[in-house]
Amino acid sequence: MIGLIKEAEQHLSGWGNMAGERSRVFRPERVGELCDAVRAGEGSFISRGLGRSYGDAAVNADGVVSHLRLNRFLAFDEVRGIVECEAGVTFEELIRVGLPRGFFPAVTPGTKYVTVGGAIAADLHGKNHHVDGSFAGCLIDFRLLTASGETLRCSREVNPQLFWATLGGMGLTGAIVDARFRLRRVGSAYVNVDYRRTADLDESLTAFAEGDAGYDYSVAWIDCLSRGRSLGRSVLMRGNHAPADEVPHVTEPLATPPRRHKRVPCFLPNFVLNSWSVRAFNTLYYHRHGDRRAVVDYDTFFYPLDAVAHWNRIYGRRGFLQYQAAFPAQTSRSGLIALLEGLAASRQASFLAVLKTFGPANDGLLSFPMAGSTLAVDLPNTGPAVMGLLDELDRVVIEHGGRVYLAKDVRLARHSFEAMYPRADEFRRIKAAFDPEGRFDSALARRLGLSHTAKQQRAAA
Amino acid sequence: MKENVLIVGALSGIARAIAGELAAQRHGLVLAARDRDELARTAADLRVRHGGQVDTMSFEALDFASHPGMFDAADRAVPGGLTGIVFCAGWMAEQQLAAADFAATRQMIDVNYTAAVSLLNHAANVFEARRRGWICALSSVAGDRGRQSNYLYGSTKSALSAYLQGLRNRLTPAGVAVITIKPGCVDTGMTYGADKLPFLVGPEVVGRDVARAIARRSSVVYTPRLWWAVMTAIRLIPEAAFRRMKL
C-alpha cells in the first residue's frame, strides 16, 4: 500500500505547562511505522509518552514521536514475574494487567500515568529507592531504535554503553521499542502505612536513618513554608505491601473498590495559589496527620494526585515548575537546610514538597539519584522571581555536590548542568557515536548542550 | 455463548479496540492481516491482557483468490469453527490526492469494496449453508451522502453499505445476521493529522459499540450514536440545495 507517514501539528509542553512549542507530531501504530518515521523522516525527533516530565524533555518543535499507540504487551511470565512490553505501555496498564495476577511495578513514580519508555529515559525512582534503587534495578533489557535505523538490544551484557547512556538519557540515544523488566510480587492491593509527624528537619532525617530499613517505602511530605525552629517539619509516610490476610473488610485483596475521579476542568486563575493559601493548606495538612498506622489502597499511597485529573491546571496558565535536588549523604543535612531556608525566605508558595532518602547510585551516565537525600518542591511560575530563586538554589546544590533532576527541569543553565553531571561528556561521546547527525533532539538537549553533534559543530564553525 | 471470531484487517486501530472487547468477553479470536510480525505482537497483547485463544492468519486484501482459502483455514483453526467475521480492512487516501491519482482511488475501491465482497461472499455462503453465524463490517458515515470533501472514499463505503444491506436481506431467512457499522470520525492512524474532524472519538468507543452490536445482532449501527442524527439531517437536504453546499 502507499506508504505515508502522517503527521499532526500540536502545541506540546511538559506537565508544568511551560516552554510549549508548536510541534510536528508522529504517532505510529506499528513498529514498522516507527522505523519508517526515523529512517525516512526529515529533521530531528524526540520520543514522548504521556508528557508527565515537567519541563522540556519531551518537547521538540522539529519532531515528536508519540509512543501512545505502541503499547502492546508481548509476554507476561507469571513464574518469574517478568513482563515484556512496548515502550508506550503505561504504569496504569501495568497495574491493571499485573495486580490481578499478584504483581505490582517494582519501582513506581508518584503517578501511574507514565510510560515504560519514560521510566527508562528518566531512570525514574520511587518511594523504595533506599531499598531497590531506580527503575534500572528491575530493568532486564530493551530494544532501542537508533539513528541509523538499526534496532539494538541493550542490556548490562549487550551494548552496555548504550544501556547506561539510555537510562536517564532523556530519549536522546534513540527510540525505545520494547523492554523487559521484573515486577514485584504482592499479596494485596494495599499498603500498611505508618504516619509520623516530626517537629523539624533533624527529627525527620534521624527517623529516616533509624527506621527506613524496616520499610520498603519511605517518603515525607515536608512543610516548606515553616521557618526557624520548625524548619523542615514533616509528615513521614512509610509502609510495606500488606499481605492478603492483613487487609480488613475486603473479599478480593488484589482488587480495590472503584473510586470516583475528580478533575480540574480548566486553568484556575493565577492568584489561587499564593503564599497565604498554601501556608493555610500546609498548616492544616500538618496538623491533620497525627502519628497513626493505617491500611490504605495502592492508589491512595502511591498516586494521591492521580485522583484529580489535570491537577497541573490549579497553577493557572502561567504554569509551574518542580525543583528536585539530590545531595550526597555527607552534605545532605546542610544542603537541605540551605535549600529550605532559601525557599522559606523567598515565600514562594509550595504545597507539594517531598523529602526522601536515596540508596546508592547506579551506572547511568545521566541518572539522577545518588546516595543521600532528595527534596522536591512545586513552585508556581512567577517569572523572574522564581527563576532567580532557582538559580540561587542551583548554586547551593552545586556547592554541596548535589544535582537536580532533568525529568523535572525546564530552566537549568548549561554551566550548572556540567557541574552537577560529571559524566555528561561521556554521554556526549556515546551519543555522537550512535547519533552523529543529531536525529534525536529536544528542547532540553539544546538547552543543556546535549545535542552538540558533528552537524551542529559544523554549523557553529 | 462463546463466539469464534475472525477479525480481518486486525492491525487497524478500530480492529484492535474491537478485538480487545471481544477477548475481554472470552470469545476466541483469529486475527488476519498482512504484516505477520505486527500481527504476532497484537495477538500477544490480547493474550496477556485478556487471556483466551488468539490465533493469527496472513491476509492479503488485494489477493482476492486467496480469500476463501484464508477463511476456511481460520474456520479450521478454532474448535467448533467460526461463528462470526468482522471486516475491518480499509484504506483512505486524501481526497485531493485520490482525485489527481487514480491509483490511489483504485486502492480504496479494491480494499474497501472489492476485497470485502470477495471475502464476505464466501463467508456468506458458508454461514448460510450452516444456517448460523454473523457478518459484521465497518462501513462509514462517509458513505451516507457524497460530499465534495470526501466522495471518493465515501463512494467505496456507500457501495459496501449497499452490499451489506442486500446481504442482510438475503441471509435473514437463514438466521445469519449482517451488521453494518458506520463510525464517524475516529482517532486512528487513518485520520491522524487531518484537521477539523467533528465529534472525534477514540477507537475504544467504537470497540464498545461494535461489541454491543454483535451481541444484539443489530442491523445498522452508527458510532457514536449521534452520527445517526447528523447523517439523517444531512440526507434530508434536497439535492438542489446540497449541490451548492460546501461539505
Give helix % range of chain B: 40-55%
Structural class of chain A: alpha+beta
* Structural classification of chain B: alpha/beta
Spatial shape of chain B: globular
Span between N and C termini of chain A? 44 Å
Query: What is the tally of helical segments of chain B?
Result: 9
Could you describe the 3D structure shown?
- The complex is a heterodimer of chains A (461) and B (247).
- Chain A is an alpha+beta fold and 461 residues long.
- Chain A contains 14 helices and 20 strands.
- Chain A has helices spanning 31-40, 91-98, 116-121, 129-132, 160-166, 201-211, 275-288, 298-302, 332-346, 384-399, 414-420, 424-434, 443-448, 454-460, and strands spanning 7-12, 21-26, 46-48, 64-66, 73-77, 82-86, 103-105, 139-145, 151-155, 175-185, 190-198, 217-222, 234-241, 262-263, 292-297, 308-309, 320-328, 353-358, 372-380, 403-404.
- Chain A has an 8-stranded antiparallel sheet.
- In chain A, a hairpin with a 5-residue loop joins strand 8 (139-145) and strand 9 (151-155).
- In chain A, helix 9 packs antiparallel against helix 10.
- Chain A is globular and about 60 Å long.
- With 247 residues, chain B is an alpha/beta fold.
- Chain B is built from 9 helices and 7 strands.
- In chain B, strands 3-2-1-4-5-6-7 form a 7-stranded parallel sheet, with helices on both faces.
- In chain B, strand 5 (134-138), helix 6 (151-171) and strand 6 (177-183) form a beta-alpha-beta unit.
- In chain B, helix 1 (13-24) crosses helix 7 (203-216) and helix 5 runs parallel beside helix 6.
- Chain B is globular and about 55 Å long.
- At the A-B interface, helix 1 and strand 5 of A face helix 2 and helix 5 of B.
